[in-house]
Amino acid sequence: MPKRKIFDEDCSGHFVSFACYKRRKLLFFEKTKYMVLEYLRSEATKHNAKVIGFVIMPDHVHALVWFEGPGHLSSFMRGWKRNSSYQIKEFLKDTNYAKELGEREPVWQAGYYDFNVTSTKKMNEKLDYIHNNPVVEKLVKDPCDWEFSSAAWYEKGKSVGVKIGFE
């Protein structure tokens, strides 16, 4: 199967998604979701990225990010996944999940999905998708009730643990 090309030269927004290895619910724990959020914040600062929206689900993550210049996406994603993976594995050593994970098994599936967002209409479509993910998965009734999402920032102006690009 040919490797999918990532286009990161036109300074458009990027809707990115990645999942836990074997779709395990490693982000079931509040602490692991906070770790993913911490490294989203850290990598956004490091790469001068604007986080437009995000959601951290029990087994996967979606984010909408924008960079001021080309060529940042791969490094951003590598840092986000690598750093959060290390911390999550350390935390999981003291849980029942440690029995399921082999020492060499990764936290994340290899790679990530990237969709270039080049219009306001598409950005709003992706934000709606991100924010409604916990509702569709029947985790909450209202998108703002999911703590690990940017929905509450958009609907209520509430801080969500990472600076949203329009702040």
Explain what you see.
The protein has 167 residues and is of the alpha+beta class. It has one domain (13-156): Transposase IS200-like (Alpha-Beta Plaits), CATH 3.30.70.1290. Helix content is 38%, strand content 17%. The chain has helices spanning 30-46, 73-92, 97-100, 120-136, 151-156, and strands at residues 13-19, 49-56, 60-67, 113-117. It has a four-stranded antiparallel sheet with strand order 2-3-1-4, sandwiched between helices. It is globular, with a radius of gyration of 16 Å. 35% of the residues are buried.
Instruction: From the 3D structure, determine the CATH topology.
Output: Alpha-Beta Plaits
Instruction: Supply Rg.
Output: 16 Å
Number of strands: 4
Largest sheet: 4 strands, antiparallel
Give the helix proportion (percent range).
25-40%
Overall tally of structural domains:
1
* Class based on secondary structure composition and strand pairing: alpha+beta
Mean pLDDT: 89
CATH architecture: 2-Layer Sandwich
Strands in their spatial order, largest beta sheet: 2-3-1-4
CATH class equals Alpha Beta
In a few lines, what is going on in this structure?
This protein is α+β, with helices and mostly antiparallel strands and 167 residues long. The protein has one domain: Transposase IS200-like (Alpha-Beta Plaits, 2-Layer Sandwich).
